[in-house]
Every structure is written in C-alpha cells, then in structure tokens.
Specification:
There is one protein chain. With about 350 residues, the chain is mainly β. The radius of gyration is 28 Å and the shape is rod-shaped. The protein has a domain of about 170 residues. The protein is built from no helices and 18 strands. Strands 2-4-6-12-14-16 form a six-stranded parallel β-sheet, with no helix packed on it. It has a five-stranded parallel β-sheet with strand order 3-5-7-13-15, with no helix packed on it.
C-alpha cells in the first residue's frame, strides 16, 4: 500500500504563499507546509541574527519564482552553534579567521584574532633600545575585543603612554627629558586607526598608537527545501559579507616609531542549499558566496590579512513521493529482499 513519503512532512502548517514584500521565518525550526509559493518580486527571508538553517518541508510542492535571501543575517563573529532536525545536524556556516595584529619594537606584541575579528596592532615604541619606553600590546580580537595595553614609560619620564583602544589597538610608548608628551592612543573601535604620537623629537618623543583589528563579516545560513515537486526559477542567496580592514598604526614622532597595523577581519561563510525532491525543475540563480577578507592595516609592522569566507554548495537528493508499507514497516528501498 502506497502512502505519502513522510520525509516531505505532514502539511500541518498549511499553505505558505508569499505574493509581495518580505516574509520572515524562524531559523532552526521545522516548517511543514502543504504548498510553498514565492511570487516574482516577493522575498522569503528571516529576521533572526542567530541560527543555522531555514528548514522548509511541503508535502505537495515548492515553487520559488521570487527570492529566498538569508545572506548577511548572523551577528558578526558568531562562529559556533548547531541544530539537529530529522536526525541531521546543521552547523552554523561561521566566519573566516581574522588576521593577527602587527607586533612592534622590543616587547610590544600584536594581538591574535578571535571569532573572525582582527587582532590589534602593537603600540609604537621609542627607538632608544630600552623596554622602558615600549608601546602597549595589541588586544585580542573578539566580542568584546580585548583592550589594547597601555604603554610602558620610565619613572623619570614626564611622558604619558596613552591607553590602548577597547577594540584591540595598543597604546604608543612615550618618553621625555623635559616638557611633557603624550603618545598616540590605540585604535578604539574595530577598524579605527591608531593616534599620532606627540613630541619634538629632541627632548621628548612618543610612538603612534596601534591600529584596531578589523570587524568580522556576517555569515549566511543554510537552506533546506523538501517537497515531492520543486520548481525554482527565481533567486536563492546565502552569501556572507566581507570582513573590514584593520586600522593603520598612528605615526610616531622623531626618535619613535609608528604603531603597527591591526589585523583584517575574516569574511563570513555562505550557507549551503539542500534540495530534496521527487521531481525538480531548476533554472534559478544561486548566489552562495563567502565574504571577502579584510586587509591588515599598515604601520611599523602591517597587520595580517583576514581569511576569505567559504562559498556555499547546492546539494540535491531525490526521494520517492510515496513509500510502500508492508506489515507495519515503511521502507523506500530493499523491498525486493523481503519474502512474501
């Protein structure tokens, strides 16, 4: 006895018809429609900022003449999370790694990337060959980013080493034999440049602040469409967005060096598209592109470049529209091996 294939759902959510504007659905939720139709000029999307997959079943048909767009949705830097639906686990598309911040003279180090955000550049140091006037370390990228370190100054100096930025740039070093001077501050917001160091280069000098790391890109999400009949003539988009560039190190005065550049942000990965059907007509346009990587900022040492986001794939699988039930056991294959 043939029965509808349960892989296509039970139709309990009724029909979905998107005729104009944008209709947003939840992520990581199993929708079970009878039919799905997205008209020309209409868009099916989500307003969610976290999640892994837009999961849609229809026990009759899915027709996409308009657009499904789940690109640029997930909060920047979100690189974990998964959901299991119908025994399959869908991991968040995530984001490419950010670049490390550039290190500077002596003991001033660049920050490492975190969650796709670039690390901050180390603050510029004085050139006198001593660790006592060293720029601060760049902070680790992330959400929130690790603050850049304040610079080191000597106890006899009236120079002021500026603070590191809250989104990773290290403060510049400072030193003075007379008068006072303040070094460049570390870049504060993601992608900001470090501040310029003050000083006359004779009796006082200071280094530039390190550039802040670049912002991570946003990823798209996966799409699953399952129906006995699928027709796609419209557009499907799951792309990630670009990571931003790292900030440049601020210029140091004479007898000091510039801050180093922040690392570029990683690009967001694109989601995959999974089509499961008995019959398929597919002339659609698919944009499943990973976001571009941010470039490391320039300075005494340049920040590292981020990593480009990964492209998505289209994966197609056929299923029969109905299955045969024998003595209470439903199966789609292997019936020839059963002895009647």
């Amino acid at each position: 006895m043939a029965t509808p294939n349960p892989v296509f759902g039970d139709g309990s959510d009724g029909a979905l018809s998107v005729t104009s504007g944008t209709t947003n659905l939840l992520l990581d939720h199993k929708y079970q429609y009878t039919t799905v139709s997205v008209s020309v000029g209409a868009t099916l999307s989500t307003s969610a900022t976290s999640g892994s997959v837009l999961y849609i079943l229809a026990n009759t048909s899915i027709t996409i003449s308009g657009t499904i767009d789940v690109s640029n949705k997930i909060t920047a830097g979100q690189n974990s999370g998964s959901v299991t639906i119908d025994g399959v686990t869908y991991n968040s598309p995530s984001v490419g790694n950010g670049g490390a911040g550039g290190s500077n003279l002596y003991i001033s180090t660049g920050g490492s990337q975190g969650s796709g955000f670039g690390g901050g550049g180390g603050g510029g140091s004085l050139t006198g060959g001593s660790n006592s006037n060293t720029g601060g370390n760049g902070g680790t990228g992330g959400t929130p980013g690790g603050s850049g370190g304040a610079s080191i100054t000597t106890s006899t100096s009236t120079g002021v080493g500026n603070n590191g930025g809250t989104s990773a740039g290290g403060g510049g070093g400072a030193g003075s034999t007379s008068g006072s001077v303040t070094s460049g501050a570390g870049g504060n917001a993601y992608g900001n440049n470090g501040g310029t160091g003050g000083g006359n280069g004779t009796t006082n000098a200071s280094g530039g602040g390190g550039g802040a790391g670049g912002n991570a890109g946003k990823s798209g999400v996966h799409i699953v469409l399952k129906a006995p009949s699928i027709t796609i003539s419209g557009t499907v988009i799951t792309s990630g967005t670009a990571g931003s560039n790292g900030g440049n190190g601020g210029t140091g005065s004479t007898l000091a060096v510039s801050g180093s550049g922040g690392g570029g942000g990683g690009g967001g990965n694109a989601g995959n598209v999974y089509l499961v059907y008995a019959t398929l007509s597919d002339s659609g346009t698919y944009t499943l592109t990973g976001g571009a990587a941010g470039t490391g900022g320039t300075g005494f040492a340049n920040g590292g470049n981020g990593v480009t986001g990964e492209n998505g794939s289209k994966i197609r699988t056929t299923e029969p529209s109905s299955v045969t039930t024998l003595t209470g056991i439903s199966s789609t294959t292997g019936l020839s091996s059963i002895t009647m």
